[in-house]
Amino acid sequence: ESGMDVFINWNKDFVGKEATARFRDEGVERKLVTLTVDTPMDVTLDEAVLVNDAAVGYITSGGYAHHVGKSMAMAYVASEHAAAGTMVNVEIMGEMYPAEVQGAPLYDPNGGRMRS
Fold first, then answer.
1. 3-class DSSP state of 113
2. If DSSP codes are grouped into helix, strand and coil, which group holds residue 41?
3. Which DSSP helix (H) or strand (E) runs through 24?
4. Does the N-terminal or the C-terminal CB of the chain have fewer CB atoms within 10 Å?
5. CATH number for the domain including 51?
6. DSSP assignment, residue 25?
């Protein structure tokens, strides 16, 4: 679900290997994604993620990202809504805000903003 399976050495035995291989082969019900949320407010833990007014996930953490100038959040969402570019809504304090699933990490690998 978290995408950490890329670090698993499948050539070694480990506790839970059979169950983990089943998830690898059959897929998972939800995935951890990064969202950019169209609001200056910080997104907080356990806010709902919705598509067409139906809950498809929940926020695990969030905060304002100065580099991208938007509020960001980490969320577990249903796998069918985890593709980059997917539009969802996040409920913050009873109000809905549009959010987009991001594909690549939002960071400045060369430190360009620090030098400008």
1. helix
2. coil
3. helix 17-26
4. C
5. 2.40.30.110
6. H
Q: How far apart are CA 34 and CA 7, in angstroms?
A: 19
In a domain, 110, yes or no: no
pTM of model > 0.90: no
Range of the domain at 46: 29-105
Pick the closest to residue 45 from 77, 74, 88, 3 (CA basis).
74
Beta carbons of 66 and 45 less than 8 angstroms apart: no
The tally of domains found in the chain comes to 1
| Separation CA 37–CA 87 (nearest Å) | 10
* 94 touches 79 (CB < 8 A): no
Please report which confidence band the pLDDT of residue 82 belongs to, taking 50, 70 and 90 as the band edges: very high
